[in-house]
Write a structure and sequence with these properties.
The complex is a heterodimer of chains A (114) and B (117). Chain A is mainly β and 114 residues long. Chain A has no helices and 11 strands. In chain A, strands 2, 4, 5, 9, 10 and 11 form a 6-stranded mixed sheet that branches. In chain A, strands 1-3-8-7-6 form a 5-stranded antiparallel sheet, with no helix packed on it. Helices cover 0% and strands 50% of the residues of chain B. The chains are: A mainly beta (114), B mainly beta (117).
């Protein structure tokens, strides 16, 4: 069935290092890929998204790349800071079970150590 | 704007009890969603609505019912709670009226942590 796989499940980096989270999706018709950051006790918040007509999008220290041929997309965080510590979810918008929906990855817990 | 709000924030139920979770949004969004979040499983869609008076089943609808009597509110009901429904529930909304595209950004509420004993 339709799914999104996300790796790694946990990621630990030193402050200032880069962090990369990767996701693969199953439906080649997917055309919208958001990334969410979830801090402890809060709801997911959109941090960046990309649509299938572009290959890369950047917003300050975060960037997302999309490879539609390989059906994978990645989140890149540069110059990480302790406040980047959170759980990150990727998602892919796809048609499944008769309706359009966002399919979420299982999440990556990022820890940035000072 | 408050965005998406959810009540209550926490709730403990006994097996067989019923309850309703309330979601409200003040962004004039057409689409609203209910998700559950379980450890290691990301977010799974329970039910959704594409407009006032409409509801539809998502990925894991069994044991839940929903209603969208007003555009700004989306209610999730558990008629007879079971321990398997212990989870964190998130409401989300998307789609300003003028665009009506459900690939628009989904905005999430802060969640309701439900424990069923």
């Amino acid at each position: 069935g339709e799914n999104v796989e996300q790796h790694p499940s946990t990621l630990s980096v030193q402050e200032g290092d880069s962090a990369v989270i990767k996701c693969t999706y199953s439906d080649s018709a997917s055309n919208y890929f958001p990334w969410y950051k979830q801090e402890l006790g809060k709801g997911p918040q959109l941090i960046i998204d990309i649509r299938s007509n572009v290959g890369e999008k950047k917003d300050q220290r975060i960037a997302v790349t999309l490879n539609k041929t390989a059906k994978h997309f990645s989140l890149h965080i540069t110059e990480t800071q302790p406040e980047d510590s959170a759980v990150y979810f990727c998602a892919a918008f796809m048609f499944s079970g008769g309706y359009n929906k966002l399919i979420f990855g299982a999440g990556t817990r990022l820890a940035v150590h000072p | 704007n408050a965005g998406v709000t959810q009540t209550p924030k926490f709730r403990v139920l006994k097996t067989g009890q019923s309850m309703t979770l309330l979601c409200a949004q003040d962004m004039n969004h057409e689409y609203m969603y209910w998700y559950r979040q379980d450890p290691g499983m990301g977010l799974r869609l329970i039910h959704y609505s594409v407009g006032e008076g409409t509801t539809a089943k998502g990925e894991v609808p069994d044991g839940y019912n929903v209603s969208r009597l007003k555009k700004q509110n989306f209610l999730l009901g558990l008629e007879s709670a079971a321990p398997s429904q212990t989870s964190v529930y998130f409401c989300a909304s998307s789609g300003e009226t003028i665009r009506r595209s459900n690939t628009d950004t989904q905005y999430f509420g802060p969640g309701t942590r439900l424990t069923v004993l």
